[in-house]
Specification:
Blueprint lengths: L3 H11 L2 H19 L5 H25 L1 H4 L9 H4 L4 H22 L2 H22 L6 H5 L1 H15 L4 H24 L1 H6 L5 H4 L2 H26 L3 H22 L14 H36 L2
Helix pairs in contact: 2-3, 2-9, 2-15, 3-6, 3-7, 6-7, 7-9, 9-10, 10-13, 10-15, 13-14, 14-15
Length: about 300
């Protein structure tokens, strides 16, 4: 038996708090752009709380489904369903409960559209990504990553009650940011994915091919962030930030592409070249998180300054 504190921490871990933090980084700035200023504090709190519950439930279901491969992968061996801190049945009940509460909370405090979008993102993440694509296709994170882009739609609809081209473009920005972000991490842990028989792109093709895909998606992402300026009526602060941040992202992607290709074997015990590839991929992964935080932060500051808030 695990002590109560360990069980509580296990339930928290089921929600993948770090991933939720990243989702919320995109939600609040989107609300500010939709409002063209600062939305009411109560609306921000309700939208963030509802989105957190919905994302946490989806992540918990993901852990429930993936508990077999989590036990194989070094990166995930400490997850609560692997260690036994939480039982599978309890995890599933907890996850479904979070989704029900999230839907009802968003419906009653924000609006029905936001509630439907939140639950739809969960269903897509569970059924399309986790249960279907993750173990069957190298396009898993490309298509499945759409679930992580839905918070932009939720943020926009929470303010306006509708959707428009601006939130669709924000959705596309996160959609195209996700593959280079995740593939960089997957290069570091490609042996884990291979051992678990998960066809994540870096586990089944060379680092060079993966890096070329990363660069292609990064260039598309860069173009989308610049295009967001006229679509949403953004100012010079955002546009300048999008150009500079995209240039740095592209430079990291090019650096990875120019690394010597170690082939399909890449492990912690590899040679100097392999270790450098892993380190370069992780620098790209780390930058991708900084990038999306700064981009959406610049988006929010741009709107707040221009609105005179």
């Amino acid at each position: 038996m695990h002590p109560p504190r360990a069980r509580i921490l296990g339930y928290v871990a089921l929600t993948k708090p770090r991933i939720i933090e990243l989702l919320l980084v995109t939600t609040v700035p989107t609300m500010i752009v939709a409002e063209q200023g600062m939305p009411p504090l109560w609306l921000i709190v309700c939208t963030v709380l509802g989105g957190t519950l919905a994302a946490g439930g989806a992540n918990a279901i993901n852990m429930y489904v993936d508990r077999d491969i989590d036990a194989v992968m070094e990166r995930t061996k400490g997850r609560p369903l692997v260690t036994g801190a939480v039982t599978p049945r309890a995890a599933l009940v907890f996850a479904i409960g979070l989704e029900v509460v999230a839907f009802l909370f968003l419906w009653t405090t924000v609006n029905l559209l936001s509630a439907v979008l939140a639950v739809t993102a969960c269903l897509f993440y569970v059924f399309v990504y986790t249960l279907w694509l993750k173990r069957t296709s190298t396009r898993n994170i490309v298509i499945g990553g759409a679930a992580g882009a839905v918070p932009t739609l939720i943020g926009w609809s929470s303010v306006t009650g509708t959707l428009d081209w601006a939130p669709v473009l924000l959705f596309a920005i996160i959609f195209y940011w996700t593959p280079p972000h995740f593939w960089a991490l997957a290069i570091r842990y490609r042996d884990d994915y291979a051992a678990a028989d998960v066809p994540m792109l870096p586990a089944v093709v060379s680092v060079r091919r993966t890096a070329s895909r990363i660069l292609a998606y990064t260039l598309l992402l860069w173009a989308l962030t610049v295009a967001f300026t006229p679509v949403a009526g953004m100012g010079h602060l955002y546009l300048g930030s999008a150009i500079v941040l995209g240039a740095v992202f592209t430079a990291y992607a090019l650096r990875l592409l120019r690394m010597p290709d170690p082939g399909l074997t890449l492990s912690a015990s590899g040679g100097v070249a392999e270790l450098e590839v892993r380190a370069t991929a992780m620098r790209l992964f780390t930058w991708s998180i900084t990038y999306i935080t700064l981009l959406f932060g610049a988006m929010a500051v741009d709107q707040l300054l221009r609105s005179g808030w």
